[in-house]
Amino acid sequence: MDLVNAVLNFVVPPASMIIVAFAWPTISFLHALEWFFKTLYRENMENKVVLIPGASSAIGEQLAYEYARRKANLVLVARRENRLWGIKENARLLGAKHVLVMAADVVKEEECRRFISDTIMHHLVNTASLGHNFYFEEATDPAVFPHMMV
């Protein structure tokens, strides 16, 4: 066993360096290409509405901050409303123009309908029309919006 360890100690470090020497340029090139295409084709999120359920911690919180840096209008939804107020302030400092905070449990269907309706009432983005002509204030039932935005 000592002989195997001695051979491995002699062979593995130089072999690792050779592998790194050949892999490093390729990895660096791919990383540069990724950066270039992300910069070139970065989606403009300014004034777009992003609804983030579970925004009070973990991935949801970090998503809120990322979209805030991109100047999106945020709708933060979570059960812990008091936690959302701090995230709202941080998002505003990072660049979000409008941040709407709502307490809701996404497991309950009625609460999902409520926060989606509230989001639609605050931020309606409709870039296509099926020929329906009415004022937004005249819409009494938010169930018509999914049919209009097909």
TrEMBL record:
Broad class of the protein's primary localization: membrane
GO CC aspect terms: cytosol; membrane
Any one GO molecular function term: oxidoreductase activity
Compartments (UniProt record): Membrane
Transmembrane segments: 15-37
Signal peptide location: none
Keywords: Membrane, NADP, Oxidoreductase, Transmembrane, Transmembrane helix
Topology of the protein relative to the lipid bilayer: Single-pass type II membrane protein
Gene3D superfamilies per the UniProt record, alphabetical: NAD(P)-binding Rossmann-like Domain (3.40.50.720)
SUPFAM superfamilies cross-referenced by the UniProt entry: NAD(P)-binding Rossmann-fold domains
Family, per entry: Belongs to the short-chain dehydrogenases/reductases (SDR) family.
The protein, known as: Uncharacterized protein
Organism: Musa troglodytarum (fe'i banana)
